[in-house]
Amino acid sequence: MLARLRNAARLPLLAALMVTSAAIAPAMAQEKLVVFGPSSWDTFAPGSPEDVVKSTTEAFDAKFKAAHPEVGEIVHDSRGTIADGLARLRNAQLAGDQVDVIVCAANPVNTSYARLGLISPVDDIVGAMADTFTEGSTANFTVGGKVWGVPVSAVNVTTFFYNKDLFDQAGIAVPKTYEEFKAAGPKLAALGVIPVIHQGKNAWMWPLYYMSSLAETTDNKQLAFVQDLLQGKAKFTDPVSVEALKLSRAWVDDGLLDPQSNELDEDAMKAVFYSGKAAAYFGGSWDVPGVASNAGFKWGVFKFPKYESQPGNPVAFGGAESGLCISSSSKNPDLAKAYVTFAAQDANAKILLDPLKPIATSHKGVAGSDDPISKDLQGYLPADKFLDWVWPRELTETIQREVQSMMGGTETPEQAAANMQAKFDAMVAAGYVYGK
């Protein structure tokens, strides 16, 4: 009888424990999602102050978790330099760390992530949202006929920044052609002003001149030319390529571009520009907030000029540069897809992009800024794909170095072309195959 009473006494306790266990079971079963940023730049609202990045991320994640109660924790892991981003991502995957969603820049998506199998195609997501994106946005994440990243991005374009006050003092208008700019050079020099300055120490910026010139020498078929080159159907030493290098070098020889630019990094270049000692520099719309904050003069933008001798028209390079990718090692790819799809919806993309105050965005339903500078830059769109998103990384490094040397006067355009081709030939001999 005593044993029965003890057992009877335990029944309410056991029932209570069962209810409690049932109540906490869903919480224990909730899923964890890891959003990986290969570098500290690969975050939501990149480049914004830390508190803005934090508040933007928390606002979006809270909205996603409300729509997906099965998610208990979302971890964001963005660290390190851009240069080390590829290695950090590969190491995390090789170590078996949880990596589900990757905040991915278009450059490494094209040059590394897709070709190395670090990410999975997202054609199904993009296909279902095809009308969402602005022209060219998904093309920037397309490699080998497949889409590898869902764009959720500010749109940037290459452009010249110029000091309107200096142009007015010199009595010159914004140049539409290279020849007009060349003719204006002596008038700026007469004021003791450098016509064009460049961040020459940053080798990755020099190919902008070559790319922009190549667009015109190839009659705006620069991307097709690069693809032919990588398939062995064209060469860097072909006339259109050598001519593009010669036109790039002419900026120095004709007295427009300061030959001492190779001694300047980005900060030094901008210091010269902000001080009024240089009239213009070639950069990108990502610089607009900085110029707006630091220029103590009236300023504006203008597109890379037209070479009157060439068949093509000027282009701006850029477009959507950031997106979300699905890690090929994700242990929960369905949840990762849900997160990426949710982020790409207009209302949610607006949360992520508004802090950037972009000139335009990857989304038709998310407008860019409407200030006069942004309006000018929107006139450049759609932008063309950066060619260093197409060249293999090893080749890009050589092109950067060769164009830098050529612009610094240590080798001729012909020598630069020959060295670039020699590097590619060596890559082919070592087993490089386009698309693999």
TrEMBL record:
Keywords: Periplasm, Signal, Transport. The keyword Transport applies. Transmembrane segments: none annotated. Residues 1-29 form the signal peptide. It comes from the Bacteria. It is found in: Periplasm. Part of the ABC transporter complex UgpBAEC involved in sn-glycerol-3-phosphate (G3P) import. Binds G3P. Belongs to the bacterial solute-binding protein 1 family. The complex is composed of two ATP-binding proteins (UgpC), two transmembrane proteins (UgpA and UgpE) and a solute-binding protein (UgpB). This is sn-glycerol-3-phosphate-binding periplasmic protein UgpB. It comes from Kaistia dalseonensis.
